[in-house]
Specification:
single chain; about 190 residues; 9-stranded antiparallel beta sheet
Length: about 190
């Protein structure tokens, strides 16, 4: 904002940008300033991260990533992975990165809940359960891939939303994603934010 110098009251001469731009509804006709995070409305007072993640697929396979109470001398939490055949220790920064994805990632599109079946959400390819620090579980159904977008439904809020299909492997991890045998961290970009 530019103001006139000198005596008398300040006057607004011009704004250096179009202030109406951020207020314009987007392609989904959402009002400006809508929280587009995947867990919008799910992380309230007392939220301090996650205690457990469960990835379940229709074939019955289940991957559970559990946080253990601070068990190291430095007070850091430890994490384990259970896949129905074994329980092994997980790299804690990978478990943290997976949680960061759910906290920081944003929806690219939204759809009415009436389209859930059409978007593959009545018979999801996976469900994710996120147990947070307040002992509240948020369940996410992972639906179909359409036009480069992966459709999700937050069962707690009822929101139907889509993210880029490039997040597929990050949303639906496998056991090795949390182990040292995988050299790269699939969730590095979420830890760097």
């Amino acid at each position: 904002m530019r103001r006139t110098p000198g005596s008398g009251p300040d006057q607004v001469l011009e704004l250096p940008y179009d202030a109406r731009g951020p207020l314009t509804p987007d392609a989904d006709l959402l009002a400006a300033f809508v929280d587009r995070s995947l867990l919008a409305g799910c992380t309230g007072p007392g939220f301090a991260g996650f205690q457990r993640y469960v990835v379940q697929r229709p074939d019955g396979s289940r991957l559970t990533i559990n946080s253990q109470a601070a068990a190291t001398p430095d007070g850091a939490r430890t994490w384990t992975i259970e896949d129905g055949q074994s329980t092994v220790e997980a790299l804690p920064w990978r478990a943290g990165g997976y949680g960061s994805l759910w906290i920081l990632a944003e929806a690219e599109r939204y759809a009415p809940s009436a389209r859930a079946a059409e978007l593959g959400l009545e018979s999801p390819i996976a469900t994710i359960e996120l147990l947070d620090s307040t002992n509240t579980t948020t369940r996410i159904a992972i639906g179909s891939l359409q036009g480069g977008l992966r459709w999700l439904r937050n069962e707690r809020t009822g929101l139907v939303m889509a993210v880029s299909s490039t997040l597929d492997n990050q949303l639906m991890p496998v056991r090795d994603d949390f182990l040292p045998s995988r050299v790269d961290n699939p969730w590095e970009r979420w830890l760097a934010r």
